[in-house]
Amino acid sequence: MASSVLPARLLGNWRVALGGGLLLLLLLAAVFAPAVAPYDPLDQDLAAQLAPPDWRFGADAHALGTDSLGRDVLSRLIWGSRVALTVAVVAGVLTALLGTALGLAAGFFGGVVDAAISRLVDVWSSFPPVLLSIILVALLGTGLWSVVIAIVVIDWTRFCRVVRAETLKQRRMDYVTAATVAGLTPRAILWREVLPNLLPLTLVLLTLEMGIAVVVEAILSFVGLSISSDAPSWGGMIAEGRSIVHEAPWVLAGAMLVLLATVLGFNLLGDGLKAELDPVLR
User: What are the structural domains of the chain?
Assistant: First the structure.
């Protein structure tokens, strides 16, 4: 009964519904990009460069205009969603796994383990995140996996801090004491008792981290440290649109709007999940 009530309650929250709807549109655009994109995102047509948005139906129509090389803006936005989603999912999940594992260990075992991990978090958090990400990608070389690695290396501390604090609280609960008296090993208590109670919190953090990952990838693309400059990415389109904003404002506006909508979707989904899954707030 509870398993059927939870999805209905989640969908009844307007933030979950709106945020999930925005992300579903993004997912559909990314998965079906070859079918829904009207043009090849790399095709150049210098005769149609900086063409304004044209909503008329026709073989040469560009709904959101073209850029300085005559490439269709709508097609590049659609294909750019693949880059954004890939980074969001892969980097977000890897960051959650690393940060959660270290946070669980620090909060549950305490002592030397907690001290060592906490000091590492303090040192890591002292570096400016954007500057550190640029340095890491510059050292690793440009590419999507370099961006993912940089995000994981930078953002694991966010999960670690929150999970550690929550684990410390859970460790003092009666159910942990009962499990210890029953003879369960620390590993069994962590996996079977503590971790399930942290999953709602981790899920909320994951959605927020995905939004942050999209922004970081856009920043690195903006400075030319993500994927190839020819490949469609929202950060690269923003960089190009800034230089031609007076001649073709639609290039900058389109990339900014989809980036804003994506981050808003992740944030709304995270806020909605927190409101519905957190027993205190509910």
Answer: 2-38+64-277 (1.10.3720.10)
Task: Give per-residue pLDDT as tens, 131-165.
Answer: 888 888 888 887 888 889 989 988 899 899 999 99
Q: Nearest-CA neighbor of 212 among 114, 110, 96, 113?
A: 96
Q: Which of 44, 78, 132 is nearest to 255 (CA)?
A: 78
Give tens-digit pLDDT for 182-241. Answer: 878 878 888 888 888 888 889 989 999 999 999 988 988 888 887 776 788 899 899 989
3-state secondary structure the chain: CHHHHHHHHHHHCHHHHHHHHHHHHHHHHHHCHHHHCCCCCCCCCHHHCCCCCCCCCCCCCCCCCECCCCCEHHHHHHHHHHHHHHHHHHHHHHHHHHHHHHHHHHHHHCHHHHHHHHHHHHHHHCCCHHHHHHHHHHHHCCCHHHHHHHHHHHHHHHHHHHHHHHHHHHHCCHHHHHHHHCCCCHHHHHHHHHHHHHHHHHHHHHHHHHHHHHHHHHHHHHCCCCCCCCCCCHHHHHHHHHHCCCCCHHHHHHHHHHHHHHHHHHHHHHHHHHHHHCCCCC
Cα separation, 221 vs 235, in Å, equals: 5
